[in-house]
Design a protein that fits this description.
By secondary structure, the protein is an alpha/beta fold. It has five helices and 14 strands. The longest helix has 11 residues. The N and C termini lie close together (5 Å).
């Protein structure tokens, strides 16, 4: 199984519009961050985690093959704004989107034409599946376990797939969720920036502490803004088993 980071940036992406900081002016492609999304792939199965507004640009870089499931972490635009761009993949059949009840309701309001009784030709064929935290989802040979994390005061969803845990936009997590993350080897988790606290997102220090608490062998930081610093410099400051992920990076699980 492998994971492809389609996007590793925060809600406005990097570079940030109108900003002239050294990160936003960097020529290093590792400092260009589209909105967060990832593919989990095996030879038989492809799972998309979040489908943000940059999805079309991101997926053009990948092989055109069936998407077996979409896992939505929450309803915010930077994570589901690209649902309409799933339409080319509907030639393989209806696409299952798994999301919590709040996100399902939000999607029906955001793209109501996808769920109308009489859909016009070309509309994405979407089948919303309401998930329940801790209840496994079977996607072909892959078992997905949804867990709950807190995005400030908003409950959102993280996912465990085998030895991989993918968590974005987390500020806190209840201790009752930790047993569902026991034994993971690879953690993907959000880290907005180094210094200033944020009401709904982890800092780098928060993410490092969470990684150490879980004891993951490899940790990749995502959902980072331009304030985190230059990719090359950030990785020099992190523990050896923790890296700042970058768009297009492929890791084997």
């Amino acid at each position: 199984m492998r994971l492809i980071f389609l996007g590793t940036g925060t809600s406005v992406g990097v570079p940030s519009i109108g900003c002239q900081c050294k990160v936003c002016r960097s020529n290093d492609p590792h400092d260009k961050r589209l909105r967060c999304s990832a593919l989990v792939e095996t030879e038989q199965t492809r799972i998309l985690i979040d489908v943000g507004p940059d999805f079309r640009q991101q997926i053009l870089q990948q092989d055109f093959r069936k998407i077996d499931a979409v896992l939505a972490t929450h309803i915010h635009y930077d994570h589901v704004g690209g649902v309409d761009d799933l339409r080319p993949y509907c030639q393989f059949g209806e696409i299952n989107i798994y999301a919590d009840e709040r996100t399902c309701r939000g999607l029906m309001q955001t793209v109501p034409y996808c769920f109308a009784e009489n859909r016009y030709p070309g509309v994405p064929k979407i089948h919303l599946q309401t998930l329940t935290h801790h209840v496994p989802i079977q996607v072909n040979e892959l078992t997905v376990i949804p867990i709950q994390v807190m995005h400030g005061k908003l409950p959102i969803t993280g996912f465990r797939i085998g030895k991989l845990a993918y968590i974005t936009d987390m500020k806190t997590i209840d201790d009752s969720e930790l047993p569902y993350l026991e034994g993971i080897d690879t953690l993907v988790v959000n880290a907005l920036r180094f210094d200033r606290e944020h009401p709904t997102h982890q800092t780098v220090a928060d993410a490092v502490a969470f990684s150490e608490k879980l004891g993951s062998k490899h940790t990749y930081l995502i959902h980072s803004c331009h304030e985190i610093g230059l990719h090359e410099e950030v990785n020099k400051q992190l523990p050896a088993h923790i890296q700042l992920a970058y768009d297009g990076q492929v890791i084997e699980i």
